[in-house]
Amino acid sequence: MSDAMALAQERNQIFDDLFAGRIPKRVPVSVNLPIEFCIQYAGQDLADAQWNTEMLEEIFDKACQDFASDMLPVLAFRFPSFYKLLGAKNFVMSSSGFLQHPEVEGLAREDYDAFIASPFNCIMEKILPKLYTELDKDPVTKAMTLAKAFKAFHDEMGHAGMVYGKLIQKYGYTDVNLFAGFCEAPFDFVADQLRGFKGISIDVRRMPDKVEAAAEAATPLMIKMGVPPVPSKHASTFIPLHMAPYLREKDFAKLYWPTFKRLVEALAEAGYPSFLFAEQDWMRYLDYLEELPENTRIMFEYGDPKLAKEKIGKKHIISGFYPVSLLKTGTKQQCIDKAKELIDILAPGGKYLFNLDKSPVTLDSVNVENLQAVLEYVSTNANY
């Protein structure tokens, strides 16, 4: 058996234990280095590498060589080609080479009723032409544009998937895929792509019944989107959680939580646990999160790790909390000490996956040597 195969078996066993509620041999380590970080780390041009994905294998391989992780540490799920073909307004390549998500409004306030009555038809007929200029055309041109964009999407993602497979085999990573599926909380879908942050914030105060009904209407679409074709205990559906920290708790309880809970429960029933990214501070919602299906995987950005461990650490798998900002400003020893602190709080009893509180998008957002030191420390010292 090769060293890579043996390492993969060991890592798979660690994650088997983690997901089954057993205490693993050691704390598993994950780091998510987005495509922009990896390109900069490899010394390549951001725009060139995102348009020419033949460069990705060499770029990602360098990151795999230099950053310790039990899971594949690189990730790319947006490329400019298909957004350009669609004339996208919601994802736009900046002059600096970063795909950005500007504030958009795909659903006018007066179109709520149309969305509630038939969300799919409303998306196709009203929302997509507003978000994608090349779909605001005659039917033949629209069909051709969609065909080209889907071809580009499958070409780009297919090539990336091939690269991932080669690197997983080469470096003996676990076959766990926390991003096997993707969807949004129904409220977040309405806020993020349809109404925009400003629009939904006004709507919550002025027309909450419409917002509630729109989230209900979006829920079946999010369930369908979030269920990948083949259930697997080593996979999960990624759900980034956006708007909840900006809501009053009474609005969260009425408008956000019911459809979100139903989504996570439906995914679990289909054989797919959810991997939630609790953006901002979710500490006031921990009692809600405790109600979700057992072993839901929750990555926290900010908050109190002790409180999270106390409230949900016996039921759910916790990750995150490690501040990327410290990797930029701290000494190497301070960074390692912070890792020790979080391990002491979150590792007892298992159900802990070490990773950062967010992905470092730019190379200068961290001191690379600090990040490497922390990952290496946890990989070799966080034994049970």
TrEMBL record:
InterPro entries assigned: UROD/MetE-like_sf, Uroporphyrinogen_deCOase
Chain ranges of the Uroporphyrinogen decarboxylase (URO-D) domain: 180-378
Domain of life, source organism: Bacteria
One GO MF term attached to the UniProt entry: uroporphyrinogen decarboxylase activity
Pfam family, one: URO-D
GO biological process, one term: porphyrin-containing compound biosynthetic process
Protein name: Uroporphyrinogen-III decarboxylase
Source species of the chain: Desulfocucumis palustris
Upper taxonomic lineage: Bacteria, Bacillati, Bacillota, Clostridia, Eubacteriales
